Predict the 3D structure of the following.
Amino acid sequence: MLNITVPCQCCGKQTPVHWMWYICDGCGYRICANCLCKHHGPYSPNGGAKCSQCMNGWLKLKNQV
């Protein structure tokens, strides 16, 4: 079995692909659980479940990218 890792798009930490990720249902923006309250961007400056990178997306908990 391969240990494939991918980076969190907020903090850059390498995490296994089979992990609990928050992934936007609109644009695919992917963050780790530690960044849920820290991510920011033009559409959500204060973190949370609203995607900060696209207008209509919401971050949903998934266990694989």
Remarks:
- The chain has a mean pLDDT of 93.
- Residues 44 and 52 are 4 Å apart (CA to CA).
